[in-house]
Amino acid sequence: MKQQKEKDILKGLKPARVWHWFGEIMQIPRPSKHEERISAWLVQWGKDHGLETQSDKFGNVLIRKPASKGYEKSPWVALQAHMDMVCEKNSNKKFDFMKDAIQPVLDGEWLSADGTTLGADDGIGVATILAILEDTKLQHPALEALITVDEETGLTGANGLSKSWLKSEVLLNFDDEDEGEYCIGCAGGIDTVAEMDYKKVKADSGRWKAFRVKVSGLVGGHSGDDINRGRANANKLLNRILWEGTYRHGMRLATIDGGNLRNAIAREAEAVVCVPEDRVRAFKTMVTKMGKAMVFEFRSTEPDMEFELRDVETPKQLLAKETQERLVDLIYATAHGVLAMSREIDNFVETSTNLASIKMEPLKGRKSAATDQGIIRISTSQRSSVESAKMAAAAKLESTFRLAGCRVKHSDGYPGWTPNPDSRVLKIGVDVYKKMYGKEPIVRAIHAGLECGLIGEKYPNMDMISYGPTLRGVHSPDERIEIKTVEMFWNQTLEILKRLK
Question: The whole model's pTM is what?
């Protein structure tokens, strides 16, 4: 009954078949790197509709649909979206992304989810593709639906794409988040991860008072699109308190946990700390004072920021003092935010870095003292529309981590997508938009990563644009989609396909 009620929320929304398939997709768990169920479902969907359907060893799915009458000699067109979703939830929300269906919430002109990400990034792109594939009355060239895995945590599906799989000469990517714009370029990216070994020592239970310090209520958001919006990073804010406590109040750190995903700005962070009994009053005063100062500092971008200091049971073990000092110094020194603005494009971020998460991971397989040794893992991601600047940013982070005695690893990274302002499909799209809506669409490059960069590397002659309906708060539980823009996006896409004869 609950599942049926959730689907009923989408009834009456237009276009009906897009929202129907989006409702079906919301029932299928699909975290990044765990797309087995949605991949198998898409393969079966293609076969059930009598369409040529393939999947590769990564789980990418390719569904082909023949050209409609009169379009048989037109070049093939690829419709592209990714099947995985960012899995973020509010800390007080009980939800298992590996098992539970997304719970939609209708709020006026917007659709969101109950305490979790909605998965419209990029579930609405996938749903649109399915609605196009099943409609036998549309006019279009031969189509290839390319639905990839693991876009959100490394673009590994697009990276593993065979150079001989696609027949298409044109690609429409449905992963943009602003109606009324066409994206024709994006930043490349690379992840840089530091590992710091830790040891714990026994705490003297007679002289400590223990607290949980928590920062929450931040807006967060996409580490590319939102990095220049002045939003706070929970890891950085928490560390300001931890650093002050360490060097001014004799505070000792037991645990720290902040942020989650490499491509999301950290919304929450917390730590369990111990303070000498004779310093408790001064420590509490400091936390209150610093919390108020930071609330004021970010008053225009973080209206719901909260600092919490709660009594907890005194832990039996504390982080070794030398490790604690290296850690709080390192977090303070680790860059976060915009590193450089473009010299050619006004108000465009060229290079940035995101301090995504801080996690303590105990060593496994130890029977006697399972939590007294482990690794503190600090995950960051760098983006740039200039390849050399991207690598320089990664080197900057590596140097900072090495100074703190950390081991450092980089991901393989992914390339940017160089804009082509003379693109034929772009010109068609702009003309379609002007005639449909009576105004010029925005044409721009974005600081976020898109699979178009990797696809273009493998298919260098592919003519590509990216566009979509309006989404806000992506990569956070505030994710929402503006309902009316889905129909605008749908009508626009059908007309573009019609013009590609």
Answer: 0.77
